[in-house]
Design goal:
By secondary structure, the protein is mainly α. It contains nine helices and two strands; from the N terminus they run E-H-H-H-H-H-E-H-H-H-H. It has a single domain, classed as Serine Threonine Protein Phosphatase 5, Tetratricopeptide repeat (Alpha Horseshoe), CATH 1.25.40.340. The protein has helices at residues 5-21, 23-33, 38-50, 58-72, 76-91, 103-118, 127-138, 144-162, 185-197; strands at 3-4, 97-98. Helix 1 (5-21) packs antiparallel against helix 3 (38-50), helix 4 (58-72) runs antiparallel to helix 5 (76-91) and helix 7 runs antiparallel to helix 8 (144-162). The longest helix is centred in the last third of the chain and has 19 residues, at 144-162. It is globular.
């Protein structure tokens, strides 16, 4: 057994609920290194995504999530999230189900698509590093409980590893040394979305 469109819908709803509760936290964090609206971007995007009726075709379901997120959150971060979901759509096109062990490879494809779209590189203290860490953690895991535990641990370790480094991508890079000691807002948003998947 793997995951299907119904699992995506349930996951989107959990993430949307979490996004609403952490919107203020993300806005505050983003205000230290950016425009201060990341919480709005994330909460609006996931609420819209969770409101869409998803088709049984897994690829089309990912596509609908991507379109929904982009529709209401056309910011740079929203575009990256939508791009990652679009990559997942291509990887699962025409299928009703995908194996849990495909999560790692799908995240790799999402990472590469997001890097190309955002013109970013790994090591610049951005959400790209988080997706890369999650992909590595998920690799080879074929059941949901160990998979979620692994990405939970990886997300925390990724934040810890980059906190004391300067940002090198996006608006945050302009803060240079001042960004040292601060969590990257996009990475923190991804951490909170994982909290949502875990129903925290």
């Amino acid at each position: 057994m793997g995951f299907a469109s119904s699992d995506l819908a349930a996951a989107a709803e959990r993430v949307a609920r979490k996004a609403e509760t952490v919107a203020d936290e993300l806005n505050v964090q983003d205000g230290k290194l950016g425009d201060g609206d990341l919480g709005i971007t994330v909460s609006k995007g996931w609420r819209e995504a969770a409101s869409v009726d998803l088709p049984d075709d897994l690829g089309r379901a990912f596509l609908e999530l991507s379109k929904a997120f982009q529709r209401v959150s056309p910011s740079s971060y929203g575009t990256l999230v939508a791009t990652g979901l679009m990559a997942a759509a291509k990887a699962t096109k025409g299928r009703k189900e995908a194996g849990w062990d495909e999560i790692g490879p799908i995240l790799v494809q999402a990472r590469d698509a997001m890097m190309a779209r955002g013109k970013g590189e790994l090591g610049q203290k951005s959400v790209l590093d988080m997706v890369d860490a999650l992909a590595a953690a998920a690799d080879g895991l074929d059941t949901p409980a160990p998979l979620l535990k692994a990405i939970d641990t990886a997300a925390t370790e990724c934040l810890d590893a980059f906190r004391d480094k300067p940002n090198g991508l996006g608006r945050a890079r302009m803060f240079g040394e001042k960004s040292i000691g601060l969590d990257d807002p996009g990475m923190l948003a991804a951490r909170r979305m994982i909290d949502g998947l875990l129903d925290r």
